[in-house]
Amino acid sequence: MRFLIENYLSEVYILRERLNKYLKKIRESYIEDRRYVSIRITCDQLINTVEGSLKNIITIRGSHTHLVRHSDRDIKRLESIFLFKEYLDELQKYLPDDYIIPNFKNEYRKLRRKQKKILKDNNEQIKILLDYCFKEMLKIVFTDDDEISCPVKHNSIENRKKFFSKG
Fold this sequence. Notes:
Blueprint: H1 2-29, H2 36-66, H3 73-83, H4 85-92, H5 104-141, H6 157-165
């Protein structure tokens, strides 16, 4: 389970990096376009939105990646039950009937259910974030007529040649 959680955190980190890189690429591509100021503002706002939305997940990922493996209280508890499983099974014989020692399979199922809900909720929020980001990016990259809005380089060499050859 730890492996799956660590990989999930890593994939969210990669998603953040790719979104930011894509937004920066769009911003840089339109640097000579007349709409650059509004495009830059939009891209910067989207980068801030991505950073803010994924901050908690990235913080968790960063802390375990650079220091130790990911762990939380529930995972540590499950590991302890697993380590002492045979001992606990043997101990149960000597305890009163109403005293129940945690069962590894039951605890694993509980933790799995909990983590599954957390990841599902995170994924729903990430989907909302992606829908918002791409909706805003499409406004930059496409016109209202659904035509591609290529960056117009007003300061390009071709435009300079046209300008200086006219007179």
